[in-house]
Write a structure and sequence with these properties.
Blueprint (H helix, E strand, L loop, with lengths): L2 H12 L8 H16 L4 H4 L3 H7 L1 H15 L3
Length: about 80
């Protein structure tokens, strides 16, 4: 394993250093988070803990990617 892979595994085991949202909180805030991202605002500052959750939760990460793609396509 490379050093990068070791670090990634360790972060996954230990969890985020800062706040992290639950899946329910993520779902409630996802629209606003994506709107902030697309507006060029600091979405991570606007909704603390969202980035950490999206990095650790594959289901919410997929929802984020889908919503962002949908909204950025002009719909």
């Amino acid at each position: 394993m490379t050093r990068h892979q070791d670090d990634k595994v360790l972060r996954a085991l230990l969890g985020p250093e800062g706040p992290e949202l639950s899946c329910e909180q993520c779902f409630e805030q996802l629209d606003r988070y994506v709107e902030l991202e697309l507006a060029g605002c600091n979405a991570d500052e606007g909704i603390p803990g969202m980035r950490a959750h999206l990095e650790g939760c594959p289901a919410c990460h997929d929802d984020h990617a889908s919503l962002r793609a949908f909204l950025s396509s002009g719909h």
